Please model this.
Amino acid sequence: MEIQEKIAVRAAAAEQEIEKFLPEQKGYAGTLYEAMNYSVRAGGKRLRPILMASCHRLMGGDGKHLAPCMAAIEMIHTYSLVHDDLPAMDNDMLRRGKPTTHAAYGEAMAILAGDGLLNHAFTILGKELISCDEISMKHVARVIAILSEKAGIDGMIGGQTVDVESEKTGSLITKEKLDYIYEKKTACLLEAAMMCGGALAGATEEQLMELCRIAQKVGLAFQIQDDILDVTGDQEVLGKPIGSDEKNEKATYVTYEGIEKAKEDVSRLSEEACGLLDRLCRKDAAAQEEADFLKELFAYLTVRDH
Amino acid sequence: MEIQEKIAVRAAAAEQEIEKFLPEQKGYAGTLYEAMNYSVRAGGKRLRPILMASCHRLMGGDGKHLAPCMAAIEMIHTYSLVHDDLPAMDNDMLRRGKPTTHAAYGEAMAILAGDGLLNHAFTILGKELISCDEISMKHVARVIAILSEKAGIDGMIGGQTVDVESEKTGSLITKEKLDYIYEKKTACLLEAAMMCGGALAGATEEQLMELCRIAQKVGLAFQIQDDILDVTGDQEVLGKPIGSDEKNEKATYVTYEGIEKAKEDVSRLSEEACGLLDRLCRKDAAAQEEADFLKELFAYLTVRDH
Model:
């Protein structure tokens, strides 16, 4: 099976689990539930739940409490897109070829649906938490601590803030701020996905830090590759216009490091992530299988042409 | 001491605790932290943390893990105000005589600050959770479950959604929807405050349900009194124009029930809340003192002229 196909199979499985945690309509707030479910069902690679489930198996987890955590992280990812697309932010009317949430339901409802999704993620985790036995409770508690921190102001929201502010000032962003945005806006939620999968499997603090480092490298490589493709990509393969960063006078990793160094860095980061993964991986067949999948996935996400 | 004075003393104490959990500036997202702290420091009665702390003592709690939970509920309350004030929602430029968050920091930053506050509430609770011993962990877990549910889509966000939708349609709201908004938008977070205080003190499920019922009655009475004051209030005492509901052709509790029945209901609900409180209260002096404070507070919030 090609990696795209493997991802599609796992994405479909993840969607089936996530679907169970979508809110059921109650009371008079029907449009809110509709807008939330519309946003989550609008598609996407389901990368974060896939990473979470894979790292969970990699670390020997038995799947207990995994599904609600997969749903929670996908809802947090979705809310961040819904709010990012708002007129006051990126003002995007289309995402993956479909009307964005505010385009479909209006701005007020998109704000509320985003709030609803973020809050609902913690409602799902809170319900799971109080149904746990003592050992599981510690694992789910770790998930709540990790996910809330990585999605929060020192994580994803912080990165989004600096990104929004940089776009509004118009002046060239410094290399330090650029690194900050890549790390916080993209890598943090991948880190959370991999760490939460490990935490639910009872991984040690040290193992969680290793998973974090791996995700960080993958996230950074993914972002740099994005910048490279904007310069060298094939518009047909990419499905979007190239050269947009230069046109918008946007400083990127390529601006600061040059195209050759950028390409080298993507390869290096991707290899380093795979190396760390090998060192972390147990020697049994199930873990090896997950490690192989993850390495293919990392290669697909980093050294790519689309 | 007058009740206003008692509230002010307790509010100052609550603010001191909340202040410790405000985010410290890190990285490059300085404006985000500023906007969040601005919103929380903008004032208010700190009613929810006060209710939480009081119910905690009422149920025999020793104050363990209380401060982070007080901070969390105030941050959730604050985020809801920040998002409510946005141009796409109520479009308010002033709150308590100060510029609203979007008026001071722009719309994008207000959306992010609101997201940041909601998320930060759960970061605070998540950090507290993993630092707990086993018994405390169960109590804090209950807090997370209660707070996320009452603040969420079947709670506060649901109420806000129906309120926003009703205002946009222009047609008169039904009595059922009006009840739904009062219950969800206002009462739910008061319920959470009182229940979480009890949960941290190790209250039983039954006791939590009683606290919930009390808060529900107080919240409803508070809302009805608001409607009454809009008809009969003294503009000077109230500090805002009266007759705005009639002017805006807004159906209220008074529209449906008439002014006399509405006044009766406020008294009845307030008395019922106090009755339930007496039945719940332990007989020791500390609990009695809290019960007395709560009864004064309920009277102040419901049968009031301002």
